Amino acid sequence: MTTPAIEPATEEARAAAVPLGKRIRRLVMELGPSRMVATMLFLIVATLFARFSWQMPLVGDAERALYDARAMVMAPHVEQDKRIVMVTYNDETLFNTGIRSPLDRTLLANALANLDQMGPKAIGIDIVFDSPRPDDDLLKAQLRAMKTPTWLAYAEQASNPNTIFYEQQKYLESYLADVTTDRTKPTSVLFRTDGDGVIRNWPDRPKNLPPLMANALAPVDPGHANYRGNIRFLVPARVAKGQEEPVFANIPIDTFAMPMDAETRAGFAELVKDRYVLIGGDVIDNDQFNIPLSRFTDPITGQHETMIGLEVHAHMLAQQLDNDWSNPLPGAALWALAVLVVLAGGLTSLVDMRARWVAVAFLGQMAFFVAFPFWLQGHGVDTTTLPAFGWALGWLLGYAAVGTAARTIGSRQRAFAQSALGKYLPADVAAQIMRDPDQLSLHGERRNIFCVFTDLEGFTKLSHAVTPETVARLLNEYLDRLSDVVLEHGGTIDKFVGDAVVAFWGAPLSRPNDGPQAAAAALAMYEAGEKFRVDLAAEDVPPLGMTRVGLHVGDAIVGNFGGEDRIQYTALGDSMNTASRLESANKSLKTGVLISAEAAARADRDDLVPMGRVTLRGRAQPVDALTPRPDLPPAQRARIAELVAAHAAGDKNAYVTCATALVREFSQDPSIMFLIERLNETESGESYVLS
User: Using CA atoms, how far apart are residues 26 and 413, in angstroms rounded to an integer?
Assistant: First the structure.
């Protein structure tokens, strides 16, 4: 069965699809110890980046930015939380009381007196009483009289060195000691910010501090009493519709500080009854914190909004009430993912497939790096330690490490192919072998190929007349010239047999223009041989004859034959023998190049003239032969063709007329004269047998 011609792109794509496992094995076997160690060290560094990127300079900043994006995009959109209410003093409150800081304690005492009778679940006061005021006694009395569980803010210099100094802490401790009862107790308002000043996680609980405010206000399960994961920040559900309804109601403290009778108090009670009440400041440029959502503009205000500390406590309290704790991926999982992404980068650099599939694989992995962390964030995983940017960086380093190693192997393979194959194969075939040297395995296939045989007349005589060194030099120069012709025309050099060159077109790659290229190469090889004869005339050596060339097309078995240790890429079959006999027939027919009619039909040349039908030496099947005569004008070539056609048709009158004219016209052309002689000796349809 004849293998159909395959377009170059299809063949190259098939050649490019080198199995990944094969490329890995080749890389490991050929890399060498030193480069292997260097590559492994680079992969280890890539894995460390993919695992510990949060702890690395600059890379950690990128991780925080990516986390903030995840926290913003995946933040739950909720209606207003009716369990928690914030009672705040703002700039207007401070202006009206004339006391900038701390808050007017008479106002706070009055508000607490009313709130205490409205039935809240608990009250948390995020105000640090660290300096004396004239109305301290009034507030102390109210705090000691509270029936509602009330928690007062406590801070210490050791954990907050930038917000409270020693004397303030001492006064605060004495103040709290005066008001502490079984209902009124201190609570920690400690926050921890990351290196960029953003609050993302619950703080630690130092042993010397009272319970954290969120833990103190509401019961917390023992398993999360020291929770250090991410704070679940909420987003108003209606913000997308342009309706601002904050997650937590914020009521000015003045609302509760005015004198109230029982009826008025009952009317306001619905704002706080059975709710957790958080009291603190909402003052411009004071007690403001950056959170993950601050990195992006607010949909309503268009500004990068900060959050007051009291609201941070509210979000933490809501998270605790919902029992919505996020857990990070286990360390083992992070290590496994780090190794996998680095391996994915390394394997991607070895993937050998069409460009569009490489692009799909690359984009798919990039999409994973972007989407997977968001998916984890949305499914309750704490991603504050997830090295999303580190994964991408580790992938890139893995790609670079393995890719560099592969390029090292590739350069060696290219050097090998250049030296071992470059003089035998055309550039695209050599490139194919460089991509996958294992294609030199032992196998064969039936292909339709154009076969060329050459021979240099008189070289045997010359080799006996000059020194071996001269023979080697002249032979190498001659073979170089003919080899260059073959490769320039896209052919494959089969072998050299002494001064003879054997080449073919159509394997291992088959192209639509194999026929024209082979025919052009046949004539060019003849002309290169003639040029060699002229150049050799200047040397003191016996003269050489012409280079004879034969070209035929037909089926042959093409592949690597020999043994595992010594192989040759060659073609076997009757078409090769026919081309060889055509080359030999040039001597009898007094031509330089002979092309079979089958090859001529696909040669796409208009300078071929028929040389009649001949039976080649050792062959039974006749062959219609043609020879290229670019030296003749078209009219003369046409008259020769008319001669052969008239003989084949048995038209004796036309034949005699053509022959008589051609004898006068080509009396000095031995090939045409011998053509007429052969035709005279044969009848219509007969072939001339070459002895």
Answer: 11
List the structure tokens of 574: 């009757």
Q: Where are the beta strands (DSSP E) in 563-630?
A: 567-572, 593-596, 608-615, 623-628
Enumerate long-range contacts of 371-380, CB under 8 Å, 24 or more apart.
373/66, 373/70, 374/70, 374/73, 374/74, 376/329, 377/70, 377/71, 377/73, 377/74, 378/74, 380/324, 380/326, 380/327
Distance from C-alpha of 462 to C-alpha of 457, rounded to nearest angstrom: 10
Task: Provide the 3-class DSSP secondary structure of residue 456.
Answer: strand
| pLDDT computed for residue 22 by the predictor | 63
Q: What backbone phi and psi angles, to 5 degrees, belong to 180?
A: -70, 130
Query: Residue 16: what pLDDT?
Result: 42
280 close to 309: Cβ distance less than 8 angstroms: yes
Q: Report yes or no: 115 and 123 within 8 Å, Cβ to Cβ.
A: yes
**Distance from chain centroid for Cα 475:** 50
Task: Report the pLDDT averaged over residues 83-90.
Answer: 92
Other C-beta atoms closer than 10 Å to the C-beta of 585 total 22
Closest by Cα among 227, 236, 234 to 201: 227
Decide if 237 contacts 78 (C-beta within 8 A). Answer: yes
pLDDT of residue 244: 65
Give strand pairing partners of 289: 307
Are 435 and 18 spatial neighbours (Cβ–Cβ below 8 Å)? yes
Q: 634: pLDDT confidence band, cut at 50, 70 and 90?
A: very high
Q: Check if the beta carbon of residue 326 is closer than 8 Å to that of residue 74.
A: no
CA distances 58 to 382, 383, 637, Å, are: 21, 18, 80
Residue closest to 193 by CA, chosen among 162, 224, 151? 162
Rounded to the nearest integer, the mean pLDDT of the chain is: 85
Nearest by Cα to 365 from 345, 349, 346: 345
- Classify 383 as helix, strand or coil: coil
Question: Considering only CA atoms, which of 325, 286, 320, 326 is closest in space to residue 306?
Answer: 286
Per-residue H/E/C for 2-21: CECCCCHHHHHHHHHCCCHH
- Altogether, the residues listed in the chain come to a count of 691
Confidence of residue 297 (pLDDT cuts 50, 70, 90): confident
* Environment class of 171 (CB within 10 Å of its CB; exposed 0-12, middle 13-18, buried 19+): middle
Q: Is the peptide bond before 102 cis (omega within 30 degrees of 0)?
A: yes
Distance CA 587, CA 357 (A): 56
Q: Dump pLDDT digits (tens) for 88-147.
A: 987 777 667 666 556 788 999 999 999 999 999 999 999 999 888 888 899 999 999 999
Residues whose CB falls within 8 Å of the CB of residue 110, separated by 6 or more in sequence, listed in order: 256, 257, 258, 259
CA-CA-CA-CA torsion sign (200, 205, 208, 211): positive
Peptide bond into 630 cis (omega under 30): no
Predicted local confidence at residue 26, as pLDDT: 61
d(CA 44, CA 159) in angstroms, rounded, equals: 38
Beta bridge partners of 125: 152, 279
Longest dimension (CA), the chain: 145
For residue range 466-525, list pLDDT tens digits in order. 888 988 899 999 999 999 999 999 998 888 898 999 999 998 878 899 999 999 999 999
Q: If 0-12 CB within 10 Å is exposed, 13-18 middle and 19+ buried, where does residue 316 land?
A: buried
Place of tokens 């080198």: 18
Strand extents, DSSP E, 41-121:
77-78, 84-90
Could you tell me how far CA 241 lies from the centroid of its own chain? 40
C-beta neighbour count of 79 within 10 angstroms: 11
Phi, psi of 579 (to 5 degrees): -60, -40
Task: Please write the tens of the pLDDT for every residue from 381-404.
Answer: 999 989 999 999 999 998 888 877
pLDDT digits (tens, 9 = 90+) for 585-601: 999 999 999 999 999 99
Classify burial at 387, counting beta carbons within 10 Å of its beta carbon; exposed 0-12, middle 13-18, buried 19 or more: buried
Give the whole-angstrom CA distance, residue 679 versus residue 674: 9
Tokens linked to 191: 């926050």
